[in-house]
Fold this protein.
Amino acid sequence: MRFNDRLKLMRKTLKLKQIELAKKIDVKYINYNRYEVGFCEPNIEILSKLNTIINVNINWLITGNGPMFIPNSETDNSQVTGKSQDYSNDDTNE
C-alpha cells in the first residue's frame, strides 16, 4: 500500500469527505485531492497538522508500520468526526 492509499484509508476510517478533511487541516481541497490521488505528497507542516488534529500516526502514514492512530488522553477522534464515544468508567464515582 502506498502513502496516498493509506491517506485515503485514514480519511475513510474517519468517515470524512475529502473536502471535510481538507478544511480541518486548512488546505485547499484540490491540494488534498492531489495527495490522495498520488500526484504529490504533503509537506512536513501538513503531516504535522494531520498528527495534531487527527492523531494519525505519521510513521504509519509514511511507512505502513504501527497503528493508524496514536491514542491521546486529551483528545479522541470524536473531535474529528463529530461523534462522541463513551469512555466512562463506573469506578469514577469513588
Notes: The mean pLDDT is 83. Residues 11 and 21 are 7 Å apart (CA to CA). DSSP finds six helices and no strands in the chain. The helical segments are 3-13, 18-24, 29-37, 44-54, 58-63, 78-81.
